What we know:
Helix content: 25-40%
Largest sheet: 8 strands, mixed
Oligomer: single chain
Strand order of the largest sheet: 1-2-12-3-13-16-14-15
Structural class: alpha+beta
CATH class of the largest domain: Alpha Beta
Distance between the termini: 25 Å
Amino acid sequence: MAVNTALLKKVCEIIGPSxxxxxxxxAILEDLKGYYDDYKVDALGNLIVHxxxxxxxxxLAGHMDQIGFMVTHIDNxxxxxxxxxxxxxxxxxxxxxxxxANGVQGVIRCERLDDFRKDLSQNKLYIxxxxxxxxxxxxxxxxxxxxxxxxSCQVDETKVMTPALDDRLGCFIMMEALKQLKAPKFDCYFxxxxxxxxxxxxxxxxxxNVDPEYGIAYDVTLxxxxxxxxxxxxxxxxxxxxxxxxxxVLCSREVINxxxxxxxxxxxxxxxxxxxxxxxxxxxxxISKSGVLSGVISVATRYVHSDAEMCAISDIxxxxxxxxxxxxxxx
Length: 331
């Protein structure tokens, strides 16, 4: 199965920071026409797509939102101060280009510092949109507007490099798996969640709509295969990652075993994932209502939360195949 790189590029390039997922939601729903039995959009904005199947309810969750920057102040010279939407390392931000939903472009720069390494923090950063004064800037953007990284999605035969791979990639894997699904042994709910980057919020409310017995989250994870990286097992090209733990969840052994069996029985390349930080929608699913047996399928990704997140095409393919086999195998 060849990965639909044109669709991957499309979903990665749609602007949709936390709380502003409406455009990516519309694109996902349009692409999935004819592949689901019914759908709903809940009050928070989660897209819940239902594919009927025999067996217990399975909720699959991948978040639509991306990290961003919210304007908090516009000074008299036209420079913008901002707050973060999601987690950032300020050292990654300096000189990065950003774009607002209305198309206004800018660049993140830093005040003059005596000691850059020691003194750099987010409150020393600003966005320059090329305005000559505060009034000019206010004609282009306003307080509360959100920008995201401005960079195109680059894809070749082996890799993809783009902003918003976290977590448009998870959405893409779910979309492509749904299209291939023939006779699921779970009653499947593909949930494209909102506001994951600000506290796993969409997954938490979605569980009350779906009331699943099982849950699988889809997200990126850190690749530890760069020079002098810490010693963790995940690497680009190592196959689909089956998570054991992260900072938000200890994955259910029943779900881990289900994934490993599906991978082994179908010769799908996989690797085990242990992450000391971070979290996914599984963390919210696992402890919502009376609890959900939860696991995660991840893709090892370099440079997460930068404008050049990078992963292997082969790992995407393995993750799609693993998803289909898990759902068709059943519990």
